[in-house]
Amino acid sequence: MTPGSDTVLDLLPLVFADPGEALARARALLDAGPAPLHASVAHQVIGIWQRDFGDLRLALRHLRRARDLAARAESAEREADVLATLGVALVHAGRTRQGLAAFERGVARGTGHTRARVRYRRAYVWWVLGRHREALEDVRRAVGVLRQAGDVIWTARALTLRATVHLALGAVERADADFTAAEALWDTTDQEHDKADAVESRGLAAFRQGDVPAALRLLDEAEERYAKLGTPTFMLDIRRCEVLMAAGLAPEALAEADTAIAELDRLGGQSTRKAELLLVAARAARLADDPDTATARAAVAVRLFAAQRRAWWATHARLVLIEARAATGRRSGRLVADAAAVAERLASFGSPAAPQASLLAGRIALALGRSEEAERHLAVAARSRRGGPPLARMNGWAAQALRARAAGSDRGVLEACRRGLDVLDDHRMTLGASELRARATAQGAELAALAQEAALASGGPRRLLVWSERWRATVLTAPPTRPPADPALLSGLTAFREIAARAEEARQDGHPVPALEREQRRLEREIRSRTLHLRGEAPGGGDRFRPARLLERLGEGWLVELAVLDGRVQVLLCGQGRVRRFEAGRLADAVAEAEHVQAGLRRLAHPGAAARLPLVEAAGRRLEEILLGPAVRQLGPGPVVVVPPGSLHRVPWALLPSLRERVLSVSPSASSWLRARETAPPPVGRPVLVRGPGLASGGAEVPELAARYGRATVLEEGDAHVSRVLRELDGAALAHIAAHGTFRADSPLFSSLTMADGPLIVHDFERLDRSPYRIILSCCDTARLASVGADELLGLVTALLPLGTAGVVACSAPVNDEAVVPLMLALHKGLGAGLSLAEALRDARGAVPGDATHQATGWAFSAFGAA
């Protein structure tokens, strides 16, 4: 490109069509020694690139040079355009007063079309500063002129900005109309970076409308587009973190925000973006129960926003700072006053976060016993229950529930909690991924706790049972949404399996595998990302739990549901037509004792540890006292179903003395037990027997079972490939899998069973049309689960239950492979005699040798469900 070329001005739109190409051409132009006017354009292009994608200090240097060259060329229009670009950079650098002054000069120097572009960029700055009314006024004046001039690119940018401002003010419908109009314009251009920004904006709109899966999908698509252009994505990082927090993934949001902050600091990027990232990191830390980190991040954000003259943002950061301080247990009249002042300021800005601040003020006032002051703030917060996004409505119902509790109305508390949880039910069922459904329940934990407290105060055990069930194991109420033959997902699963198998083989050979592990983690992120995009199809709510139906189905049996209120275990004993309540020990003591038991079982899996058997049995007696208390003496004869809270899922219930000789099963909830009890078995077919590689026993029970059943589908050695195993498992009446199990606490849906060609993961099971009616997993750790959300569990067992499985036998601890063989043979003998899984497992424990290793192996296995 030569200095006299008529296409020099084309460099400016190229910055957001192909940023790298625009930068290269601008540098080449400067190397050619252009005239001042053209040099001004080149420096402006480099300044824009550095401002948005690189070092802000270099950006300011180039933009000031561009301004001086435009003045030397005596081009008022050129100078006005550069002043607008410089004004944006100055505001992003935290020099707000200088930036606004540059815009004043730009508006004065420009005319007509140029002035409209200056006003658009000033509107953008008003949005950055949180001054939304000024932003709307400037963009309104710009849009008409830009449209009249036929400037498609700048009109589309202005419409996108106006939509973004509308979203900040909660005007979702207006925003949607502007986004739609802007998208139609972008389709007529080759502005690839602007198009990526439009996709990102649509993701933001989907989020504000409560569609989390669509938001994640669109933001991921925008990220892919930005990656092709090689440009950083700090604004997208902020928006993605907001969506992750709404999805219950606050720790991930915190990690992403901190990574983006480090990258921004490395580049010397925009101070305004850093402040916004610090704010989102503070919010994420608060939701992740890390108030110290939240306090530190929010305090820095407040200081930066204040220095940048961004009152709207600073007020939002102060809200997070107060929330974090309150989360550490701080309570004072000053904190109430601060929260109330923040609420008033947010309301003056028209911010949708104002009710959240009023709710905070009301909570702190209640804790201090200031009932009248609390009522005033909570009444304001409760108004949000009538409209807006789901989480805002939930906060409104939480405020209403707190008002009712302060007024002594248990009925009012329960009604508010019911309405709030109904809102969350509807929101949760828009999520297709079981992980998101489980984690989203954390947002209803306060409402569930308030309802249980009110139910307990009203004195009715049945009412407490209903509310204990209301928010327990809700992820099992409907199967996850299956992707419609998504080839990318299937390809990702296949690649993941191959890489994981290669990595494991290399480890066994003693070779380092960092490259394979990095690729495995990348594939895991890709698979998980695609599953999080799935939108739910099932309606919220579903059948309401009815104690009478449970008592009828129990017959002569018993169901023991454990609820936790104020840290103590409440035992709800259901049976013989009654529901009775007993108070037992402290949950913290039970969790600690369960960990001791797990350690003991791990030791007993190895020879020579028999001396620890009495210690494990003594721990079982202590667990019984803590968990069942006086209820154990009221248990009559008959089978027992135990429904523990998520934090107690690792208790080996068969170790408890009163339960050892009983027909015993475990269920995540009474509702899921009822569904399993009422699930019809498929037509009798061949049992499916699977033997994976690497077992110490060689999976010795499988050949014996094959001979015993005669007609069985046996998959072992090279035949036990994941695709073949899944095909045979789909709809089977009975399946037995002997394979190594790996539990992933960091990512429970990647917990796996080792097949011939690699891991069979939970995501694979979720692709089944119907999982086996009965399934036996004779391997370590298959019953281990991750406790997430309010009281949800993620893992292999809970993946199977909503897919048609009525009964599972699985293990919650490492076990001795050889000791498993006689237990499994005895278990199948009972099934052959027509027993249920729980009955057969009870008899199998009594049939194996009486040494410590075999006893510990029997205790480690549990029957889940009702088949």
UniProtKB/TrEMBL annotation:
Keywords, comma-separated and alphabetical: Coiled coil
Keyword Coiled coil: yes
CHAT domain sequence ranges: 618-863
Keyword Metal-binding in annotation: no
Superkingdom of source: Bacteria
Coiled coil: 59-86
Residues that span the membrane, as ranges: none
Name by which UniProt lists this protein: CHAT domain-containing protein
Organism of derivation: Streptomyces andamanensis
